[in-house]
Amino acid sequence: MIKITDFFTKEPRTYTELNESLNISSEEYHKKILENKMDSHTQIKDAPLFSRRLEIFIKQFFFDRGNKTIILDCGCGLGLIGMELEKYKNFEVFLSEPSESIKKIIDTIYPNKKFLPFPIEKIPKEFNNFFDVIYLREVYPFTRSNDISLHTELIKMLNEKLKKNGILIFEQIKNSEDLFDNLEKLKIIYKKFYLLPVRCFNFRWFHKIYFNIDFLSSLTKLAYKLSNKKINHYIVVKKY
Ligand SMILES: C[S@@+](CC[C@H](N)C(=O)[O-])C[C@H]1O[C@@H](n2cnc3c(N)ncnc32)[C@H](O)[C@@H]1O
C-alpha cells in the first residue's frame, strides 16, 4: 500500500519558493506570489471565483438553519479559497495543510487564521464531530492514487471529523488514477456534479439555477466530452 506520507513529504516546489522569498522579506513574498506559475499547485488569482461557487453550492445543499456552518478547507495549500470563503456570512472556516513552508507562510502573513498544520491522518481528535463541511480541492492522496485501502482509511478519518449530517466535498478533475476509480467500490453515499470552468458564468443567479437542474450538469459533461477536455467535478459524500 502507498504510504500517506508519500504525498506531502516532498512538498510542491512553489510552496518552497514562496517560503524562500518570505525568508528574504515580506515585499519579496508579495512580489513572488504574483508571478505567473505560482498558482500551479494552489489557487491564488482564481481563489475568489472558486470560493464564490462553493459558497453558493454549500448554501444550496447544506443549510444549517441560521447556525454557523463550520468548514474545513483540507489540504488547502496557501488556503486562499478558504480565506475567501470565510468572508461569507454564517461561515466559520478552518484551514489544514501538512506543508512546512505553508505553515511558516501562514504563521507570518496570516497569523489570525484558524490553521491546523496537519495532514488528514493527524488532525487532532478534538476536531472529531466538529465540521459541517470538509472541502478538499485537488488533494493529492485523492488525485494521484487509486489505492482503495488508502481511500477507505482517509475517508473514514475525514468522516470522523464531520458532524452528524456533515458532508465532504471533493473538487477535482479525472486523472489517470484517482478517487473516481473507487467511488462505486467504497461503501459511501455520493453524488457527482459536473462543473463549468470557474471563469465562465460565475454569477450567483447562474449557479443557483445550474445546481438545481441536473440536466444542465449533464449537458456540461456532454460538451466537455465532445471537445475532448477534462471536466471539473464536485463529488459530495455524506457522513455515514
Ligand atoms: C494541488 S494542491 C491543492 C491545494 C489547494 N487545495 C488548492 O486547491 O489551492 C494539493 C495539496 O494536497 C496536500 N496534501 C498532500 N497530502 C496530504 C494529506 N495526507 N493530507 C492533507 N493534505 C495533503 C499537499 O500538501 C498540497 O497542498
Please name the defining characteristics of this protein.
240 residues, alpha/beta, Rossmann fold, seven-stranded mixed sheet, 7 strands, binds S-adenosylmethionine
Account of the 3D structure:
Strands 3-2-1-4-5-7-6 form a 7-stranded mixed β-sheet. It has 240 residues and is α/β, with parallel strands linked by helices. Helix 1 runs antiparallel to helix 2. It is built from 9 helices and 7 strands. The protein has one domain: 3-Layer(aba) Sandwich (Rossmann fold), CATH 3.40.50.150. The protein binds S-adenosylmethionine (SAM). S-adenosylmethionine (SAM) binds at residues 4, 7-8, 11, 41-43, 74-77, 81, 97-99, 119-120, 137-141.
Task: Lay out the secondary structure.
Layout: H1 13-24, H2 26-32, H3 47-61, E1 69-74, H4 80-85, E2 91-96, H5 100-109, E3 114-116, E4 131-137, H6 140-143, H7 148-161, E5 162-173, E6 190-195, H8 204-212, H9 214-227, E7 232-238
Helix pairs in contact: 1-2, 1-5, 3-8
The chain binds S-adenosylmethionine (SAM).
